[in-house]
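SAMPLE LOG
Freezer: B-3
Tube label: C17
Construct: single chain, 135 aa
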Amino acid sequence: MNDFDLDTIRISLHILAASVWIGGQIVLAALVPALREIGGDAPRQAANRFGRVAWPFFALAVVTGIWNLLEIDVGDRSTAYHVTLAVKLLVVAAAGTASAVHSLTSSPAIRGITGAVGLVGSLAALVFGVMLVFG
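STRUCTURE (predicted):
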């Protein structure tokens, strides 16, 4: 059995942050049709509440991601690792940017596009993260 140490805390926090960020997007997307049936401002209110939880966890994912990189010798990694890391960082940036635009726009078309880009980018970042660990 491994020791409970700072690495365990760091990695657990990173996984928790990604779970809340991505899982919350999936759950909220599934709830939107029901919230629209409720009517009024229900979808916007739910999205605002979600944002109050999700954005701190996005920040936690970024901070623990940086912490993860500081714990390894990136220079000793392969070219494939560096390419995968670069792509992951790009999709994290795209997902965060799209999600921010999604939160700030009043245009339904832009909200739809940026919501999709935010979720797909977040899922891609998850996959690239797994590739970095196990690849």
